[in-house]
Amino acid sequence: FTQKVAIKLIRSGWDRDEISARFRTERQILANLQHPNIAHLIDGGVTAEGHPWLALEYVEGVDLRRHCDEQNLNLKQRVSLFIAVCEAVAYAHARLIVHRDLKPSNIMVDTAGEVKLLDFGIAKLLDAESAQTTALQVFTPEYAAPEQVRGETVTTAVDIYALGVVLYELLTGRYPYKLSKGSNPTECARAVLDQVPKRPSQAITQNLKDPEAATLAAHRLLSPHKLRRELQGDLDAIIMKALRKEPAQRYTSVQELAGDLGAWLQHRPVVARSGGWR
Question: Is 260 a catalytic residue?
Answer without folding.
Answer: no
